[in-house]
């Protein structure tokens, strides 16, 4: 009787053809079989044919090729592959102290900003969008932050916090048969409910619990952070110092590149690798979310050998540009913030920069306009096939940024 190894090697072929081979003849190649059909399966360094102990492997355990990942149905639908870290994880990583492994105790903005990042991430993955038809008038009569949100794709994303939020929004929109009628809530309402900022006792259950700790554990699973215990006088607390400093350094490098650029062209170092979905818009959301979450100052103050430290004037200019970017991308369509002005601070800094330079051609302003132009080009590629050329998912992103732009006045 043939052994189990022979049966697995045969793969449906008889053992007589393989046994007829002379012992002195060289072994058959893995790329050929007895019937002359070429087998193009990839080789494995530890296979039994090479003298190793493994005779088989699961192709799902192998790292996917970039070409196959970019050609997947999900990548084609959303316009590219997903990055390694979500927007929420990037903001949390920027706010964490490298060696201590915890956030600043005086930061009151990051919890609210993380809830907004959850909506942005779901919109970028094309799971939620604003409704197209507004009841009671045109769309321009409704504030961007008051646009109604609806779930357009209820498939799970694989990220625990995103899936929990998506299920909650879907259950509110389409409740089970026999229960109360469904309702669709606005952008600002959802950010408030996820943060627990509500006086309605019936909506308390919408608050997401332990978001920062769950995001930190996700970064631990991805090898970016590690878990330690630190004693804080009367109690022990789990902290998460940075384990892979290169990941955080790449985030800070992206921020520095986009906030110190002097030309209209977006620096390649400010963007994610080629093929990642929404490269330009994800960098814009990173800048705006880091600025509103009050983690930009601490992140840019961290010293890394590969990043040149910024002087006082450069840091002030970077903050002014971050505020200007927020003003241009928290309106719809993008780039109309200089006219309507979403935040008074952005309008004040724009005018002061022009006065300081003595002309209207400020390099910082030109760089922001170049970023807006690149984002519009990217939106045009993503919105192909949309009705009326309108991408409702990206409009929701602008609405969330408007809510985050009013963060200091809300808290």
UniProtKB/TrEMBL annotation:
Membrane topology of this protein: Peripheral membrane protein
Residue spans of biased composition, Low complexity class: 14-34, 352-361
Subcellular location field: Golgi apparatus membrane
Annotated Basic residues bias: 1-11
Gene3D superfamilies per record: yeast vps74-n-term truncation variant domain like
InterPro entries tied to this protein: GPP34-like, GPP34-like_sf
Keywords for the protein's UniProt record, in alphabetical order: Golgi apparatus, Lipid-binding, Membrane
Residues covered by region (Disordered): 1-47, 337-367
Composition skew (Polar residues), residue ranges: 35-44
Family of the protein in this entry: Belongs to the GOLPH3/VPS74 family.
Protein name: Golgi phosphoprotein 3-domain-containing protein
Top-level taxonomy: Eukaryota, Fungi, Dikarya, Basidiomycota, Agaricomycotina
